[in-house]
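Inputs:
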Amino acid sequence: GAVVSQHPSRVICKSGTSVKIECRSLDFQATTMFWYRQFPKQSLMLMATSNEGSKATYEQGVEKDKFLINHASLTLSTLTVTSAHPEDSSFYICSPDRDGNYGYTFGSGTRLTVV
Amino acid sequence: AQKITQTQPGMFVQEKEAVTLDCTYDTSDQSYGLFWYKQPSSGEMIFLIYQGSYDEQNATEGRYSLNFQKARKSANLVISASQLGDSAMYFCAMREIPNLYGGSQGNLIFGKGTKLSVKP
């Protein structure tokens, strides 16, 4: 199956600072990367979809100026949480788009805590 | 309206017994895929099993089987011979076919999950 590397796995940052999360597809080229967010004791919700070479699309209620997504190459997509606040504390996890017959692979996730 | 419904927030099962986790879905698409994932406390999402809407036979993967009842729009996960390591959150998910007119982008839509606890 596809291998996806996500870093960092855990980060604690101060309120007002920015955090960058990287997601790399190691053994295939991902033209599309899905970014999900999971608040404690809740399910995964799609935040945004990044597309290589074009602008990301954001789900309703997700601020595109706050969650900057860059998909500069077929193997790397990044999510930057700008001016982070405690309410941004969550589990962020990426998943490259695959043919629907495959089990979607996920990164290992990033647990962000904003203090 | 929820597209994926998991009505069991928590389930207990005795070790070595079988357990069924419920999942119902809602879609107007004819072609879609259904998935089950396991999420241990570490947070990683572990793919368990897939069922395509046109698959006539229920999917099986080792101790996991998917009881697919298309007319009822249900896709229950059956875990046989439960093990202590099966204790985790289990999510049912659906993928609709992406289209250019809005709607699905091909991402997964998840249910709220069921927390399974296996008792020794």
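The radius of gyration of chain B is 14 Å. Flag for discussion at group meeting.
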